[in-house]
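=== RUN LOG ===
request id: a7f3
mode: sequence -> structure
chains: 1
length: 457
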Amino acid sequence: MIAYRVLRALSRLALRWFYRDIEVVGMECLPVEGPVLLASNHPNALVDALVVGCMLPRPVVLTAKATLLENRITQLLVRMVGVVPLRRASDSVPASSGGVLDPARNAAAFAAVLDVLESGGVVLLFPEGKSHSDPALAPLKTGLARMALMARVERRLTCIPIVPIGLTFERKWEPRSRVLMQFGTPIMCTAGLPDEPNDVAALTRRVDAGLRAVTLNFRSTDEALQVLSASSVLADVLDAFRPLDTPDPPLVDWVRLAHRIADIVPTLPALDLEVGVRVEQFVSRLAIFEALLKVNAIAASDVQMSTSTAAGTWFAVREAGIACVAGPFALWGRVNHWVPLRIARVLALRISRTPDEPAMNTIVVGLLAVLAFYIVQISLVTWWLGGSAAVLYGASLPLSATWDFRYADRLHRGAQRVRTYLRFRRDADIHQRLHDDLVWLRGEAIALDALIATTSN
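=== RESULT ===
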């Protein structure tokens, strides 16, 4: 348990450094006590387990593919935190079996999961059985449903809630992007129901439906790119002008818009001609607006900024004051962490082969590199200045790094707003055009959504 807590604390720190924000929505769907099976989609390899395990208030027993035991480092981590290894059908088919899988290959793993549930614990599973970058959920494996039914029958557990978790990454491979963890409505596997094989399939379908409600699913990669691009711009268009510490609308707003657009697209051919024409005009004007933003390197949300001299002066004075107070501490974090984190990122990108690997490799290699540098630095300070100084020095390291990342985000967005402010001051016409487009798009989006909803009903 101590190893679990230590690794969880380190993982939280690593996630805070790599991702700018992890939004959690629907935590009230998680039971505060009793056995729970968590069913999550699997878009980002080991990072998915870290996000769920670190953000939940309850301890979580993780499951992972048994092939992790083939690597000595991951084998050590798996055993330290009590991960339950599951052997997938694709992992191994013994040559001696003539291509037939051993049905008992996961008996010990299933028993371990049932033990956790019987003790009132939480178990995380990825029913897709693989990490991937496909635009939709992969077909779910039946293991989770079989575990739930076995817990009911063999362990006499009267109620096993299966809680769907949808993980959405803004740009999963990119540092300082964002993550959304969204809980769905619990799926209850209660006592007294039949226990036939077809119930495994039925329960798997219910889990699939629950996961689809909290994840984004598209028919193709092209459709995904189009819908996500449009929803990202629309989220800014519909949002208010935000302060620098929270410059973007919540990721959940973007995801909800993407869900809504994806729902609307199949209904477009059935719309009245007049409504269809309005939709085409809206899409065309949105595309022009987005292209104009890209050409001028302007964020959609910044179109609403004031370009008055007073607003610009206050911005400069405020940010200069913050820089005087926060800048030195952020610089201390940068000086002490730039080298190991840079090494980690370069190595991570070099060894990554798929979009699922850069974040995972950066976090794992980064943790090892930073800890190694900490040991060297603290040892030198202890030798030079003594134990008390080394304690203070060591305490300052993770705090300063965390602040450095946050302050760097602020500087980046602040610099972008300064460029936009100066651009608008030089060319008031482009500001007015973008502002007029934004106002029209906002009003038309709201009107069309209401009109389409009425027509559909």
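=== NOTES ===
The radius of gyration is 25 Å.
The chain has a mean pLDDT of 89.
=== END ===
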